[in-house]
Amino acid sequence: MKPPEKRESVYNMFTDALLYFIVMIFALLIGSFLNVLIFRLPRGESIIRPGSHCTSCNHKLMTKDLLPLFSYAWLRGRCRYCGVRISRRYPLVEILTAVFFLRVFLENGLSLETAIGCIFLSVLTVAAVSDMEKGIIPDLITCPGIIAGLFLSYFTIGIKSSLMGALAFSGLYILAAVISRGGMGGGDIKLAGLIGAFTGIQGALLVFAISALLGGIWALFLLLRRKAGPETEISFGPFLALAATMVWFYEQEIVSFYWYIIGQAY
Ligand SMILES: [Zn+2]
Asked: How far is the CA of 138 from the centre of ligand 1 (A)?
C-alpha cells in the first residue's frame, strides 16, 4: 500500500490537471466570443443578433460548427456549407486567449486578480486585432473597459493610481495628437486611458515607453524593406496592446532590468 502523502500528491495532481483543463475550455469559449466582437464591433453590427452565420454564404452555423479550435481543425479551415476559407485569425485568437488565461491562472489561482487579468487581456486582444484588421479600436470595447478598469482597481492598485494612470496616459496622447495634428487617433487615446486605468501610473509610463520603442522598430523595419514611406499610417493599437501585455506579466522584471542597465551605465 502506498504511503498516504503519495496518494495525496497524486490526488492533487489530478485536481490541478482538471482545473487547468476547465480553465482552458473556458478560455477557448471566451476566445470564440472575442472573435465575434472583433468581427462585429468595427462594422457596427449587434453582437447578439443575428446568430452566428458564415460571413460569406450567410448559412446559419450550428453548435458543431462553432466548437473553438476543434471545428476549425475538423473542417480544415473551410465553411461546411460553401467551402470558403475561414480566417486563421479565429483559431489564433482562441489559442492566444487560452495561453493568456492559463498564464494568469498559474500565477494567481482562483482569485479576483485572475478575473481582472483575464478581462484586461481580453479587451487588449479585441482592440489590437480590430485595429490590425479594420484600423478601428471600437469605442464599445474601450469605453466600458476604462470604467471597468477604474472600478476594479479598488481591489488591486487602488482607485487613485488607476485614475492617475488613465488621465496621464490619455493626456499624453491628446497632447501628441494636438502637436502632430491628428497623428494619434481617438481610438489610441481611449486605449491609452484604458491601459492606464488597469496598470496605474508606473505601468502606464512603461507601456508608453515600450510601445513607442516597438512601434519605432516596426516603422524602421518597414522603411528599410521599402514597404512603407514616411507618410504611411501605421496602426498603433497593436503596439500599445503588446506593450501592455508585457507590462501586465513582467512589470517587476522590466523595472529591475531598467535599473540594472542604469546601474551599468555609471
Ligand atoms: Zn459559408
From this structure: 26
